[in-house]
Description:
Layout: E1 2-6, E2 19-23, E3 33-42, H1 47-51, E4 71-78, E5 88-91, E6 98-102, E7 107-109, H2 125-138, E8 145-148, H3 154-165, E9 169-174, H4 177-185, E10 190-193, H5 200-207, E11 212-217, H6 222-230, E12 231-239, H7 259-263, E13 267-270, H8 280-292, E14 300-304, H9 309-318, E15 324-328
Parallel strand pairs: 8-9, 8-11, 9-10, 11-12, 12-13, 14-15
Antiparallel strand pairs: 1-2, 3-4, 3-6, 3-15, 4-5, 5-7
Helix pairs in contact: 2-3, 5-6
Amino acid sequence: SREIHLVRHFTGAVKPEYFTLAEVDLPEPAEGEVLVANEWLSVDPYMRPRMAGLKTYIDPFMPGKPMEGGAVGKVIKSRSGALKEGDYVMSMLGWREAYVAPAKGLMKVDANLLPAHAYLGIAGLTGLTAYAGLKRIIGLKEGETLWMSAGAGAVGSAGIQFAKAMGARVIATAGGKAKTDFCLEIGADAAIDYKDVPDLRKAIKEAAPEGVNAYFENVGGDHLVAALDVLNQFGRIAACGMISRYNDETPSPGPHNMTNIVTKSLMMRGFIVTEHFDLQGEFIKDLSSWMMSGKVKSRETVYEGIEKMPEAFTGLFTGANLGKMLVKV
Ligand code: NDP
């Protein structure tokens, strides 16, 4: 079986030579264990600091060891009463074609209810991230105007649709016309190509003449600066991610306009999806009804073959994905 190992910790741009494809022999499953063949692998921006050797809320990847990440696979051999051959399971044992692991650490998913890959995207942590950010961090209300950054990405495209289903007006930003078209197609009321406007704040103001009540932060940098300027009084920011900063080799200067937080009584709160698992039941209930009524659809960009993992991951930083970036093994 093949798996991807990190060659060394690095800062700066992601390059293919930092990864290597290793061939390993898997043991026979012991009592209580299962052999799983992964079918879908997730690549996510949060993996980037783990490659720099940084301990954040999660440990760094170790050179010479298989990397980790979300994966959905099929049980091929089982020596556990909890799982049978043919069952689908979700795990954090991604970046590899197959693995042997104790059944108790794996989460069984229903591949008849939803396609298996949806558990890595809209119905998985990606969807819950968008949901928790909107529901709990921002507390989005009907009739409010939301700005969703990285709107054509995984969290962004889920969030645009959820916010529309919650009755908000949504302005999206994304890089390139194909992406802004996609944001409109999934329901955004306005979409701005941030690469094609000389002044982001002016473009947002034109799209939201009555101002913005909430900003979903996926990008950081110039996007955050613009948000601090365009938010209305009592505006809220859900700080979900700041992907424009993850490859920085030196710390970047902070926004020059932070006094807006004081003068407009803004609220900015960071969050990590794993802190909000208590919302899971409510999330699945809302998501199923939104999906059944056709309000929410999932969209993926799929690369084929485990050897494409580094390219798929790198693509997150060059904007190669529409919707959730996945690799099909
Ligand atoms: P995406 O599918 O959104 O992929 C990343 C996208 O970011 C790219 O497609 C690209 O879109 C955009 N991007 C990349 N570099 C830049 C840049 N320099 N400036 C502006 N946009 C850029 O990934 P996810 O949906 O998985 O993640 C989105 C954000 O949410 C990330 O910041 C991530 O860290 C965060 N996150 C946080 C979680 C949490 O628990 N707090 C959980 C999951 C994700 P474009 O072509 O439009 O530029």
